[in-house]
Amino acid sequence: MYKLQKYTNISSRHTCPACGRKRCFTLYVDEAGDPLHESVGRCDHESSCGYHYTPKQFFADHPDLKPGKDWRDDHPVWLQKPKPKPLCTIPDYVVDRSVRFNQDSDLVTFLRTIIDPMVVQSLIDEYRIGVTRSGATIFFQIDSLGRCRTGKIMKYDPETGHRIKDPDVPSRITWVHSLMKQSGQLPADWELSQCLFGEHLLLEHPGMPVALVESEKTAVICSGLMHQYLWLATGGKSCINDRLFVLQGRKIIAFPDIDGFKEWTEKLAEYPQLGITVSPILQQNSTPEDLEAHIDIADWLIRYKTSRSGHSDPSCYPERSEGSISRSIDFLRAARFLDPEHHDELDALIKDLDLEFWGAERIEEMEEEKPP
Fold first, then answer.
1. Containing H/E element for 108?
2. Phi-psi sector, 42: left (phi>0), alpha (psi -120 to 50), beta
3. Which of 274, 282, 309 is nearest to 214 (CA)?
4. Are strands 210-213 and 252-254 parallel, antiparallel or unpaired?
5. Most exposed among 40, 171, 291, 358, judged by the fewest C-beta atoms under 10 Å?
């Protein structure tokens, strides 16, 4: 049985046989830690290279070299490096005709109740959010080179923004590539290779710190409410994998859902070279009701924003460039302990001195000693 070699140090990463870059190639190894071959592995540069040659593919290409045969000494032909398979993508016209500004999806209808409509329009354009004829939302996965990998199609309640999970509702969640294969618009051998949602924005914002969340909806909402981060989504709890290497060299902070903190912390620890910080903000500020509702960072930001404004009318909110929606996580954590009249001073202090919130405790007033 072969599996990708775990990262131990820089020597456990090798030169990619496809793109030729050093220290970015993970080999498949057996239980003893011995590699199958120098060509059998996965390149960390999933977006720009995409090379991934599995043991199954290797033995399919070389059936006479399966385990149990004495092939190491008398089969020099297998040492030839295989050509990388071309990356399968979705045509650009599919994205272009799906991103419509004259038709709102059910999710966009909800977004307009919590975010300024002009900001919502920019979010649709930035994240290339599509809409189906029935009002479902299409979250396209576009990589850092602008290639569309696929699109996730999901239905939402336009009043609550919650995903519709009723099994009696058709097309709860599906994929653009699956529908195109079924209709014959893509070949049967088309293979899916996913990337992070919002990954295409990395080149547009080269110096921006990245905030990593689970769901695409969360990334979009947070981008509208707290835009000093570049918000990207993994697409699910189980989707923390090598596609994260596209973030190498960035400052990255992860905001797992309230029930995913332990799992994300453990999984992200397998990528020490990325230096990802896992935020405990939801765990430190949650209520039993929050745990039961399985909230995420977007739910928390929406609640804070609504409590500050008193209602959910977008016209009452500050502009995108100023006010509470542009304030940092540290501000949100500290502001709970101060009257709203002092929030502007707190925000300015945090920004001017680059402060971080560590905690708060009550200071008891001491009785003034009376003179003798």
1. helix 106-111
2. beta
3. 282
4. parallel
5. 358
In whole angstroms, what is the distance from residue 177 CA to residue 198 CA?
Answer: 18
Residues 81-140 pLDDT 10s = 556 678 899 999 999 999 988 889 999 999 999 998 889 999 999 999 999 999 999 999
**Distance set, CA 346 to CA 249, 284, 343 (Å):** 31, 20, 5
- Distance set, CA 226 to CA 215, 257, 321 (Å): 16, 17, 10
**By the 8 A CB rule, do 19 and 43 touch?**
yes
Q: Identify whether the C-beta of residue 78 lies closer than 8 Å to the C-beta of residue 128.
A: no
Tell me: the pLDDT tens digits for 22-73? 788 999 998 888 888 888 998 887 666 778 888 888 887 777 666 654 444 4
Which tokens in the block code for residue 129?
């959010």
Q: Which two tokens stand for residue 149?
A: 């990998």
Distance of CA 125 to the CA centre of its chain: 18
Tokens representing residue 21 in the block: 């870059």
Classify residue 260 as exposed, middle or buried by CB count within 10 Å of its CB (0-12, 13-18, 19+). buried
Give the domain ranges of the chain: 3-79, 92-326, 333-359
Helix (H, G, I), strand (E, B) or coil at 48: coil
pTM given for the model: 0.66
